[in-house]
Amino acid sequence: MRVALLLCCLTGLFARVTGLIDWAAAIAAAGSAASAVTSGASVLNGLLGGSGYSVACTVEVENWTKYPLIYPESYINGGIIQAPPVAVRPGQREQFVAHKTGNTATGTYGTASWLISSTNKRAVVMWSCPYSFDLHSNELGVGLTDKGVTQHKDWFQQMETGTSGSGLNFRRGEYYQHTKTISIKDSQFEVTGIMGTSHKAKARIIVRPFELNDLADSLKKQVEKVPIVG
């Protein structure tokens, strides 16, 4: 308990003195900031995540920044997007749903991205959920484009089998026997992701800033509750 309190105090002091957020320390000390994130219409509408299809993927995106995630776009390389991605306001979460094509032995895979408004860069998500786990597993990728790369592209092949480059930096992970958090960061933002291992998987994506002043107001208030050693 005392260790957690000390970490909490140090995290608050670090944020105030430097203006930077050490997310690993903050989450370990004070718990997830997700309690300050509210659900948007796409979540509140209670989409059933591809109910009725044997393979489906629900991608939930949380925006911890003060910048709206706008101009959402997607490429569906396999399957169908049941509910397309929507803009994500600061301090909110939204979701979209993709599933396999009916009456086919296929899965769902593709990419989606959002422009981080006023920054001239995009946050990118790649998902791949196969029909069978005999040869393949669920895969998730998270990416950030270089500044100035504002147009969505069909990044699936690059993110599924390739490496960072051509204005896109990313990380990917496989989700079969265990789950793990993947992340990609630049000097301003970090995008994290984690995914389930079932045929009806859910992926959770978080877009968060390093600068305290770039936090959504609702999260900034929570971070500022962290006490300082007096």
UniProtKB/TrEMBL annotation:
Keywords per UniProt: Membrane, Nematocyst, Signal, Target cell membrane, Target membrane
SUPFAM superfamilies: Cytolysin/lectin (SSF63724)
Species the sequence originates in: Mytilus galloprovincialis (Mediterranean mussel)
GO CC, one annotated term: nematocyst
Signal sequence coordinates: 1-19
Gene3D superfamilies listed in its UniProt record: Cytolysin/lectin
InterPro entries assigned to the protein according to its UniProt record, in alphabetical order: Actinoporin_PFT (IPR050677), Cytolysin/lectin (IPR015926)
Name recorded for this polypeptide: Uncharacterized protein
Organism taxonomic ancestry: Eukaryota, Metazoa, Spiralia, Lophotrochozoa, Mollusca
Localization per record: Nematocyst; Target cell membrane
